[in-house]
Amino acid sequence: EPLSTGDAIIAGDLNASPQTSPRKAKLHADNVDRLKKMGYQSAYHVANGLAHGEERDMTLRWIGEGKVPYFFHCDYIFVSGQLADQVESAQVGSMAEWVESGSPGRSDHCPVTADLSIS
User: Fold this and answer.
1) Helix ranges (DSSP H) in 1-119
2) Are 115 and 89 in contact (CB under 8 A)?
3) In whole angstroms, what is the distance from residue 28 CA to residue 105 CA?
4) Please, how many CA atoms are within 13 Å of residue 71, restricted to the half-sphere of its CB?
5) Residue 44, helix vs strand vs coil
6) Which residue pairs from 96-100 have beta carbons closer than 8 angstroms and sit at least 24 positions apart in sequence?
7) Radius of gyration (Cα) for the chain, nearest Å?
8) pTM for this one?
9) 10 Å Cβ neighbour count for 117?
10) Are strands 75-80 and 9-13 parallel, antiparallel or unpaired?
11) Dihedral of the CA atoms 3, 55, 69, 32 (nearest 10)?
């Protein structure tokens, strides 16, 4: 499998989160397990010393029935091989700036960024 050889980065919205329904939480756990078996780790979790499900920063605000807001961490940067050892920091953009501002061009997601020390 090309994704399990060499160093690589997989980033994006996985549409699954530990904060959601049991079915989606299991989907997230399955995704993490598959990636772990291929040598990938979440840069956010490595940098912040957190396990999946312990996220302090949510990446998505979803408005549910009755206009009730729900918050999830479903956007990730997974790094493999030596890249995991080179993660210096990882952070999530501000919910106020990216989601709640109403500015044109913004999103219902906050960006996840990571700094790696690659020499």
Assistant:
1) 22-37, 43-48, 95-98
2) yes
3) 28
4) 12
5) helix
6) 99/61, 100/61
7) 15
8) 0.88
9) 9
10) antiparallel
11) 30
Strand ranges (DSSP E) for 29-94?
Answer: 40-42, 60-63, 69-72, 75-80, 87-92
Q: How many CB atoms lie within 10 A of CB 84?
A: 17
State how far the Cα of 55 lies from the Cα of 49, in Å rounded to an integer.
Answer: 10
The closest alpha carbon to 97, from 59, 67, 70, belongs to 59
**Residues whose CB is less than 8 angstroms from the CB of residue 64 and which lie 6 or more positions away in sequence, other chains included:** 70
Sequence-ordered list of residues with C-beta below 8 angstroms from that of 92, at least 6 positions apart, any chain:
44, 57, 58, 59, 73, 75, 110, 111, 112
Q: What is residue 101's predicted lDDT score, i.e. its pLDDT? A: 80
pLDDT in tens, 32-73: 999 999 999 999 999 999 999 999 999 999 888 998 989 999
Q: Which two tokens stand for residue 55?
A: 């996220």
